[in-house]
Design a protein that fits this description.
This is BTB domain-containing protein. With 491 residues, the chain is α/β, with parallel strands linked by helices. The protein is built from 21 helices and seven strands. Strand 5 and strand 6 form a beta hairpin.
Amino acid sequence: MRISSSPPRGGEAMNDTSASSGGEASSSLAETPPNFRLPHQLVTLKHPTTEASFMVHKEFACYYSPVLKEAFQQGEVYEISVTWHFEPIQLLVQWLYNQRFDKQTLHEESLNALDEPPDMEVTSLVHEEQFLMGQLWTLAKHLQIPGLQNDAIDQIRRLARKYRTLSMDDEFFGILFDHATPGTALHEAVIDLYSWLLTVEKGAYREKIARGISRTPRTIVSGVLTALPEYGSKGPDYNLNYALYHVDDKGNFPANKPFELVTLRTSKNEYDESFGVHRESACHYSRVLETFLKKQAAGNRELTYIMRYSGAGKRELGSLLQWLYTQQIDRHLSYVDTPDVPYSQLPQRTILGMESDSLLLADLWYMADELKIPSLQKLTIGHLWRMAKKYRFVSSHKGFMDKLTNSGKWTVPHPLSKAVSEIHAWLLVTAEGIHRKYRSDTITTLPVMISTEVLLALAALASETKSNDNAVAALVEESRTISSAAKKRKA
């Protein structure tokens, strides 16, 4: 941008009075709505490449654009080079006077979607206007005119919605690469439109759209991949929320908040596993993440929370991420889809899968404990009980026990270890014959902290079974056996 200063007309020098008067008028231009009270004050908007120039009343330019207000305090000509062509400047001038602009190629009367994709001629006209609106949005963003930004993006979305097409021309992609950075209204609106088009179109036209999207900036492609699962249920007639991609009066994009991410990482090593989660979800469910984000500098969009718990990897973080968005973790648990058959009939690979599920649930419990997410902790324990009641299974694997006791370093039980101990006790009580003996032998191999908790759980169960003397006697005998074995190991 260049500002050109022009001398007083006729070469006359301005006296002090006129200079003072002009200064006062200039300073009030952006404060009072324009009404042609200074009709003689004109300024020029110029496109340097095409040499096209547009005259506009100064009071209109300065009222709607703080950038132009500042610029025209130094001169009377402002060069605009953020657009490829001069037509966006022409629309800008229209908008400065009317706060609307004439649609250049199309005059749609409704937003009803067409049954078929438009023909090539109509598509070309639609893409031309979308490119024009993209340039206008970029210009309005540069000049800090939020109302014009919103009108331009509304027109892009109207055209895409009615004619079921969004430009994939190189010039339009140029706008996305150069000006529609992640988090801006245009960037997120384009993701929304491409995702919707992919779900409503079929056959060769869908393939054409997919090929076009693959040429867009990587952030657009990534956004579409993330958004696609949500669009299958919207169909061709989903309601357009025009305010969704509007900026506020200060030019800020209100939708930035839900699009801001916080990164969860397993260690300070930048190459370790990490996942991004939207701040809104993170803060809603985790008091720790909410506190962490409040302490960060305002506007910082590169926020990383490093997990203190070291047992988390890709699968564990992925499960945590799924829960933060859906409050479910079933997709990461193999036992959920296992046929409902007795434990003795389960194939070995299924049992190994449940061992792996147990490790995952323990990791999730510890991560939820660190992040202060009690509902996720409750869910993990619920899955352990579900496995026990459905398949009479609870892990006694060394890896699982090490997680419960921190490889033997912990001696004070916690809610997860207590829950596992109660499951072992319940399985022992409900087992019969040789199966009870197997359960008893298994418990004698558990860490002292766990076996002690099993004893306490057995005692509690025994005290509740007063009506059956034989059952009480059997439980007491099992308790003695387990206690003796635990004492020998400890000695």
